[in-house]
Amino acid sequence: MKLLDTFNTEPHITFEQQNKVGILLMNLGTPERPTPESLSPYLRRFLSDRRVVELPGFLWKPLLRFAVIPLRAKHVAENYGRVWLNEGSPLKVFTERQCEGLRQRLPDNIYIEYAMSYSEPFASQALAKLKANGVGRVLVLPLYPQYAASSTGAAVDKVLNVLLKQRNQMSLRTVSRFYDHEGYIKALAAQIRNYRAEHGAGEMLMFSFHGIPQMQHDKGDPYPHECRKTAQLVAAELGLGEQDYTVSFQSQFGKGKWLKPSTQDLFVSLPKKDKIKKLDVVCPGFVSDCLETMEEIAIAGREEFFANGGEQFHYIPCLNDHPLWLDALADLAKDNLQSWVSYSL
Ligand SMILES: C=CC1=C(C)c2cc3[nH]c(cc4nc(cc5[nH]c(cc1n2)c(C)c5CCC(=O)O)C(CCC(=O)O)=C4C)c(C)c3C=C
Ligand SMILES: [Fe+2]
Ligand SMILES: [Fe+2]
């Protein structure tokens, strides 16, 4: 009877048939096409997640449906159009390359898939694929170096929701953060060093991270501390002093208080007040280039900086499929697979 069908009916499988190890990379999600029709369901899923917007449903849901989504879908679709790649949305293209890069670096008996929190492939689809291959032990690796409840927490929720339905539950491990992982820090430093060697260094390096509402941090989300620590470690690796770099938070959504300083405010005040005319910007909170880096920073941010007297603006791309980063990702996976898989040293 459907009413009683709370848990999945699954085939009889012994642990020996279901003991393989898998890795599930997780990222945020992105529309299939840069159109309002494709954006609406994605934005609806994303912005109705209570991890992301913590407002009572009876207030937020009608606002979201009748005002936020119709207005936002149209204007954000145009922004996606400016950064769309031949193969699709940058976020999806780079996540797929990272998944493939990890497969190349780990033994074939480790099954690797990726899933998105708010678009296909969903965690349910990726986990079903892993289960069908005999995977019973899964390492969940959200591709967010700094933990935030609205990114990492929300991604892990999607996996847990699938397990809530499983009768023969998979074993789970999660990587909640890697903001200070040596390989990640060294890959970032190499990316910045090489970019500056090729294009010249600006007067200041800006580390711009995605923002979160200040209220979420006040209630215990450690995110900004981890962002600042990443910046500090990369700066030390590059031999930069405190006057050589700045940390800021971008992509504010809505009218509430978000983490400060805001990247957008600095694009005005750095050239105008602080006389910084040559700026380099890197976004270490994103391991893949996406709308928020390619449009908001590299296009709109550059325009704003120049409109306020800036003279040189270099956007340093995310790690994407940089071999050092893929090596770091493989190391991170191996560290967290200890005792599930043994490696010859
Ligand atoms: C309350 C709203 C939002 C919170 C909190 C938030 C946190 C957060 N987001 C990312 C990473 C990404 N966000 C991206 C896009 C994006 N983010 C929001 C809102 C919040 N994010 C919206 C509405 C959007 C969609 C675009 C828009 O309408 O402006 C993306 C890019 C996706 C892509 O397809 O390219 C990423 C990546 C993190 C890491 C984070 C918390 C730390
Ligand atoms: Fe976001
Ligand atoms: Fe704090």
UniProtKB/TrEMBL annotation:
Fe(2+) binds at residues 210, 292. It is an enzyme of class 4 (lyase). It is found in: Cytoplasm. Its main location: cytoplasm. It catalyses: Fe-coproporphyrin III + 2 H(+) = coproporphyrin III + Fe(2+); heme b + 2 H(+) = protoporphyrin IX + Fe(2+). Keywords: Cytoplasm, Heme biosynthesis, Iron, Lyase, Metal-binding, Porphyrin biosynthesis. It comes from the Bacteria. GO terms for cellular component: cytoplasm. Its EC number is 4.98.1.1. GO terms for biological process: heme biosynthetic process. SUPFAM superfamilies: Chelatase. GO terms for molecular function: ferrochelatase activity; metal ion binding. The keyword Zinc does not apply. Catalyzes the ferrous insertion into protoporphyrin IX. HAMAP family: Ferrochelatase. Belongs to the ferrochelatase family. This is Ferrochelatase. It comes from Conchiformibius kuhniae. The lineage of its organism: Bacteria, Pseudomonadati, Pseudomonadota, Betaproteobacteria, Neisseriales. The gene is hemH.
